[in-house]
Automatic annotation (TrEMBL), chain B:
Major place of residence: membrane
Name by which UniProt lists this protein: Branched-chain amino acid ABC transporter permease
Bilayer topology annotation: Multi-pass membrane protein
Organism from which the protein derives: Paractinoplanes tereljensis
Pfam families, per database record: BPD_transp_2
Keyword Transport belongs to the record: yes
GO CC term, one of those recorded: plasma membrane
InterPro entries (alphabetical): ABC_transp_permease, BCAA_transport_permease
PANTHER family, A to Z: ABC TRANSPORTER PERMEASE PROTEIN (PTHR11795:SF450), BRANCHED-CHAIN AMINO ACID TRANSPORT SYSTEM PERMEASE PROTEIN LIVH (PTHR11795)
The keyword Nucleotide-binding appears for this protein: no
GO MF annotation, one: transmembrane transporter activity
Record's keyword terms, sorted: Amino-acid transport, Cell membrane, Membrane, Transmembrane, Transmembrane helix, Transport
Species classification: Bacteria, Bacillati, Actinomycetota, Actinomycetes, Micromonosporales
From TrEMBL, chain C:
Protein name in UniProt: Branched-chain amino acid ABC transporter permease
Membrane topology classification: Multi-pass membrane protein
InterPro entries named among the record's database cross-references: ABC_transp_permease (IPR001851), LivM-like (IPR043428)
GO (cellular component) term, any one: plasma membrane
Compartment annotation: Cell membrane
Gene from which this protein is expressed: livM_3
Length: 218, 280, 311
């Protein structure tokens, strides 16, 4: 689904990613954790084709959709129009009905202007917009940022369900505990490099990761 | 019909041309954030092309249509130069379009010389009012209505609005942001061209008519802060009518100043209000 | 860079003597443009403002000198009044319009220039569309400047004066504040830089430079008309400032020189026998346009700052 090898990405002279290899296989749910400025969003934008890598190899297969960091809804448009544009690439499948079935929370909001929704509602719309393209892999950048625990719980529930139906997920999360909980495998990114990777249980058990990201004393 | 009614119809006719030019500015600005200084050149190029096509024997309607089409194509070219190079800021884009407006002078003088030109419009009069003004008003209503529908009711229009609102998110859902910008330039070019083609039978056009046109269009559009098509139409009509009344009852010498003063007043009043909001 | 200044200085002193009469006129007009462009470059580079109305201040200066000397004011006083009047006008219009930004200010300055031109064309006291004619030469204490050569050196002096003032301004507390202002306004405001006052000061100084150019122009040519200061002249100034490099005094001088010389060369080419009558205007418009676009897209900082960096 996603196969990135030795990616190097630069902003001008600054190197944001320095030889990063990451893979997500079909139906897999993978977490990417790391501190602020580690390069997570850069990796996401590269994988989604918004940034071009300076070196390395990137292969993706199947449809890929993004829930961007900070939601990035189309503020002046209604929720329904936001959803429609999620299927921009696929002119014949722009009917939004199935999204309201998957995310019933959106039904009462459909005619509302997206820019005026609460953060949690916006994240739900962003998720719906990404699902509109009927993706095989979903990339979510900072799912829980700034949201109340109950909202995060709700979003996580939706993710689990989609995953159970076969959707592959690359989840970028500041909340490492949540990420390791949801995903079977994880990567730890630090200053543009992968410093640890493996099954979530193993990473959660490793003392370095636990101290740095789970807030535990060793 | 009375004098006043005549002035009103003439004013609305002129105002339609301003509204079309202003709407072109708005479409381009909303999607690309570039204030297109070459907007008046579309009108001049469109109108001058029609003079040539008519002289070559093409029938009315076809010649005008081709003139508008050419203006749309020129719009795409302007868009390519002003936004095509990655990393070009909207401010740089403004200066580039200023340069393109001057370049249009070279092209226009080369092909058409520097003397004013015109061509006949719809002949005849209804109740003392030139029929052509009614044509201007009718065509403008249809075209601006269609443009509004394009933005409100079609996915292409939604994608244009989306690009304007958040280019990053637009790219994330697979919208080709550069292509949308060029499409906006095409629409803006065609709207500008239409303004020129409609107005030339009642007002001669020469290579440097573009400054007055872009200033009038900008004055119309500034009422809606360059982003609101509805207010742009209101602004254009208001300007046209006030100009016609000033020209009719005071003096034609002050006609063209109306748009300039209107623009300055709106700009300064808005800046004053913004300062108040910031201070609060 | 030192040698470049030396070459320019020697050129400015020697050229007036060796140039043919027609070329001397071009030299003088070049110098006048350079004065206005130094001001504009300061405004655009240091105060981050786009003005499409700089030629309005040239016109104001010229009409001030012209009207005063027609009404028998001492010519020197009439000349000094030109930059003063332009600066005062800039302060008056600057208070409301300098609150505008970017394209808004661009259109507002353009509108002001068109308004000024139409007022001048309509005003009986300013000679209407015909303008002012039969203006006297400049004279200082019985010495009358009635040769092109005199004006050439007067212009050299004017350019020098303007450049020195600009240099002082740039390297003063005001200049440092202005640089902060152009790059990050909020930060400058927070650090106590009086943003509005500084911006108005640059606007007034920039207008004064153009006004002085206008004053000299009026004595040199001996006649004025609204048509001598078209919108296109303002655009020409912008092209010169952008090509040379905004905020750079040397850039403003180089931009003015380069554009004037290139346009002059093309004009003489275009007026060769056999060339069509429209050739000069077509070529000069095309040159302004293409140079402006090429520099904005490919040398965005302008020629001089880019050269400085690569040396
Ligand atoms: N557009 C940009 N231009 C220049 N540098 C950038 C740009 N975007 C990001 N960077 C730099 O690249 C590095 C990685 O940034 P990135 O946004 O990928 O980190 P992140 O892991 O997503 O951080 P966060 O947790 O804050 O979202 C940082 O040092 C950042 O300053
Ligand atoms: Mg990030």
């Amino acid at each position: 689904m996603i196969e990135a090898r030795d990616l190097v990405v630069r902003y001008g002279a600054a190197t944001a990613l320095d030889g990063v290899s990451v893979s997500v296989r079909a139906g897999e749910m993978v977490a990417l954790i790391g501190a602020n400025g580690a390069g997570k969003t850069t990796l996401v934008n590269t994988v989604c084709g918004i940034l071009r890598p300076a070196a390395g190899e990137l292969r993706t297969s199947g449809r890929l959709a993004l829930v961007p960091e900070g939601r990035h809804l189309f503020g002046p448009l209604t929720v329904d129009d936001n959803l429609r544009l999620g299927a921009w690439r696929d002119r014949k499948n722009r009917d939004t009905g199935h999204i309201y079935q998957l995310l019933p929370e959106l039904v009462p909001l459909r005619k509302q202007v997206a820019g005026r929704l609460s953060g949690g509602q916006q994240q739900m719309v962003a998720l719906g917009r990404a699902l509109m393209g009927r993706p095989d892999v979903l990339v979510i950048d900072e799912m829980s940022l700034g949201l109340a625990p109950r909202v995060v719980e709700n979003l996580a529930g939706h993710l689990r369900q989609r995953h159970a139906e076969g959707l592959a997920v690359l989840l970028i999360e500041q909340n490492a505990r949540l990420a390791l909980d949801l995903c079977s495998r994880a990567y730890v990114l630090e200053a543009g490099r992968v410093v640890a990777e493996g099954p979530s249980a193993e990473l959660a058990g490793s003392t370095e990761v636990a101290t740095a990201y789970l807030g535990l004393e060793s | 019909m009375g004098e006043l009614a005549q002035y009103l119809v003439t004013g609305v006719g002129l105002g339609c041309a301003y509204a079309l030019t202003g709407s072109g500015l708005v479409v381009i600005y909303r999607v690309t954030r570039v204030v297109n200084f070459a907007q008046g050149s579309f009108a001049v190029l469109g109108a001058l092309t029609v003079t040539t096509l008519l002289a070559a024997g093409l029938p009315h309607g076809v010649a005008e249509g081709l003139g508008v089409l050419l203006a749309g194509l020129v719009g795409v070219l302007v868009g390519v130069v002003a936004t095509g190079k990655p990393g070009t800021t909207p401010q740089a884009g403004l200066i580039v379009t200023l340069g393109l407006g001057v370049f249009a002078y070279a092209v226009e003088i080369f092909f058409w010389g520097d003397q004013p030109r015109s061509f006949p419009g719809l002949p005849g009069a209804v109740g003392g009012i030139q029929t052509h003004y009614l044509l201007i008003i009718g065509v403008t209503a249809v075209v601006l209505g269609a443009t509004a529908l394009l933005f409100a009711r079609t996915d292409l229009g939604r994608a244009l609005t989306a690009t304007a609102a958040d280019p990053y998110a637009a790219r994330a859902v697979g919208i080709d942001v550069v292509r949308m910008g060029l499409f906006a330039f095409a629409v803006g070019g065609a709207l500008g061209g239409l303004a020129g083609v409609l107005i030339t039978p009642v007002q001669q056009v020469s290579f440097d008519s573009d400054v007055a046109l872009v200033v009038s269009g900008f004055s119309a559009a500034i009422l809606g802060n360059l982003t609101r098509p509805g207010l742009t139409l209101v602004g254009g009509l208001l300007l046209g009518v006030v100009q016609a009344l000033v020209g009719g009852y005071l003096s034609t010498a002050y006609q063209s100043e109306v748009a300039l003063i209107f623009m300055l007043v709106v700009l300064i009043a808005r800046a004053g209000r913004r300062d108040l909001v910031e201070a609060a | 860079m030192k040698w470049a200044y030396a070459v320019a200085a020697v050129g400015a002193l020697v050229l007036p003597v060796v140039l043919a009469p027609g070329q001397l006129t071009v030299f003088i007009l070049l110098g006048l443009s350079a004065m206005a462009v130094v001001g504009l470059s300061l405004l655009m580079g240091y105060a981050g403002q786009v003005s499409l109305g700089q030629a309005a201040f040239t016109a104001l200066g010229a009409y001030t000198s012209g009207l005063l000397s027609l009404h028998h004011a001492p010519p020197l006083l009439a000349l000094v009044a030109a930059p003063v009047a332009a600066a005062l006008a800039a302060v008056v219009v600057g208070v409301p319009i300098l609150r505008l930004r970017g394209h808004q200010l661009a259109f507002a300055t353009l509108a002001l220039q068109i308004l000024l031109l139409s007022v001048l064309s309509g005003a009986q006291w300013a000679g209407g569309a015909v303008g002012l004619q039969g203006l006297p030469y400049l004279s200082v204490g019985g010495f009358e400047l009635d040769q092109d050569l005199d004006y050439a050196y007067l212009v050299v002096g004017g350019v020098l004066l303007v450049s020195l003032i600009a240099h002082r301004l740039v390297h003063s507390r005001v200049g440092r504040g202005l640089r902060a202002l152009a790059t990050g306004e909020m930060a400058a405001e927070a650090s106590g830089v009086p943003v509005g006052a500084y911006r108005l000061l640059v606007f007034a100084v920039s207008a004064a430079f153009a006004g002085l150019a206008g004053g000299i122009y009026c004595f040199f040519l001996g006649y004025l008309a609204p048509g001598s200061f078209p919108v296109l002249l303002s655009i020409e100034y912008v092209v010169m400032a952008v090509v040379g490099g905004l905020g750079s005094i040397a850039g403003a001088l180089l931009g003015a020189a380069l554009i004037t010389v290139v346009v002059q060369l093309l004009t003489s080419l275009a007026t060769q026998p056999g060339m069509p009558s429209y050739a000069p205007s077509v070529l000069s418009y095309a040159v302004y346009a293409l140079l402006l676009i090429a520099v904005v897209l490919f040398v965005p900082k302008g020629i001089v700052p880019t050269l400085r960096r690569s040396l």
